[in-house]
Design goal:
alpha+beta; 11 helices
Length: 388
């Protein structure tokens, strides 16, 4: 046995408690270790809605990032991209970058970029542009106006060419390679993949990843015939009650998007993402080579970059960042050193633990910052306490 049955029952009770208290309407969890798979389906797809199903479809938000990183590495392995080549020729909108003289300063006070952007910069989120969480400053206001600011996942009306042109019209926040800045690198990779592959991003993902892995419900939109399995998305309102941010029949994910966000636009199911997780845990499974998986899941950040990066001070004290995934570099909770994966702000989480031959997936439908979510924390504590 890979799991203790009584401890799996404890995990169910803990997760069911979050649903019972109304913190989230429902969830699907999946844990796998050494060939043993356990799936738990709890609650409903929406408040007062139909029961949750094992094949319910969720907006997986930032779990899109590891997928696009794998897609990028497919092109690297085929020598159609090189990790340290500048992207200027393929993305001329990002050539000859200017960089803000001061992060919070005027947009017209800039200095030249010290070097071009590379594919590695995009994969490691060291391109010099990304998420900002703080008071309004000129670059953030301009990014919002241009439709390239980082926020809760929502389909964009821009086309990929329009999006990258808008991004290119703004200066970088920091010099390339200076620090880790979340998210934007993945969306740039989505545009880059389209141009290199000569086909829409979703078509490339379907042909090279989703189709071979049998990920039949993973896409950038939910067609009408699958809408009965689609979950409603919520956020906590000012009074503590759940407020709908995206429904089912009026969903922003109800049609193919103009801009398929590689950083946060995918929908998926527990079994679909399990197939993706197992591909990585097994060393590539014909999608990538074992050496590419090893590179993707190796910490790429320097100590100097970690010292000035992260969602909060000390964020990188016990973790690192590879290509599209975080990596645990110190054992401060129950997980193993070397565990890798990522979380989505819409209530989703996936991590692989190679030392334990473990994959864990949690899909729910409440917007939450992962590090502050009791559901995420209790899920992963429960996963590890259940191991025999």
């Amino acid at each position: 046995m890979s799991f203790d049955k009584a401890r799996l029952d404890r995990m169910h009770d803990v997760l069911a408690g979050h649903v019972g208290r109304g913190w989230v309407p429902g969830l699907v969890s999946l844990v796998s270790r050494r060939g043993e798979v356990h799936v738990d389906v709890i609650g409903s797809q929406s408040v007062d809605g139909p029961p949750m199903r094992r094949d319910s479809i969720f907006r997986i938000a930032s779990l899109s990032k590891p997928v696009v990183a794998v897609a990028t590495m497919i092109l690297v392995e085929e020598c159609r991209l090189r990790l340290d080549d500048p992207v200027d020729e393929l993305l001329p909108e990002l050539a000859d970058r200017k960089v803000l003289a001061r992060f919070d300063g005027p947009l017209d006070e800039t200095v030249p970029a010290e070097r071009p952007l590379t594919v590695r910069d995009l994969l490691t989120f060291r391109m010099g542009f990304g998420a900002y969480f703080g008071p309004d400053i000129p670059i953030f206001a301009a990014a919002k106006e241009k439709g390239v600011a980082v926020g809760p996942p929502a389909p964009s009306p821009l086309t990929p060419d329009e999006w990258i042109a808008n991004l290119g019209s703004l200066p970088l926040m920091y010099q390339p390679g200076e620090r880790w800045l979340y998210h934007t690198g993945s969306d740039v990779l989505g545009v880059l993949i389209e141009r290199v592959a000569g086909q829409p991003l979703e078509a490339f993902l379907a042909e090279r990843i989703f189709g071979p892995l049998g990920m039949t419900d993973t896409s950038f939109f939910v067609p009408d015939e699958k809408r009965d399995r689609f979950t409603t998305q919520y956020v906590e309102g000012d009074d503590g009650a759940l407020v709908v941010t995206d429904g089912v029949h009026d969903s922003g994910w109800g049609k193919p998007p103009s801009f398929p966000s590689a950083g946060g636009g995918l929908v998926s199911t527990a079994d679909d993402f399990f197939a993706f997780g197992q591909m990585m845990l097994s060393g590539g499974a014909g999608i990538l080579s074992r050496k590419s998986i090893e590179l993707m899941t190796t910490d790429q950040l320097t100590s100097a970059q970690k010292a000035v990066s992260g969602f909060m001070p000390g964020y990188f004290d016990n973790r690192g960042w590879g290509f599209g995934v975080a990596i645990d570099t110190q054992r401060v909770d129950l997980q193993s050193v070397g565990r890798y994966g990522w979380d989505g702000g819409t209530g989703t989480s996936w991590w692989n633990d190679p030392a334990e031959e473990l994959t864990g997936i949690l899909l729910s439908q409440r917007l939450a910052f992962p590090l502050a979510s009791p559901l995420y924390l209790d899920f992963w504590t429960s996963v590890y306490q259940s191991i025999e």
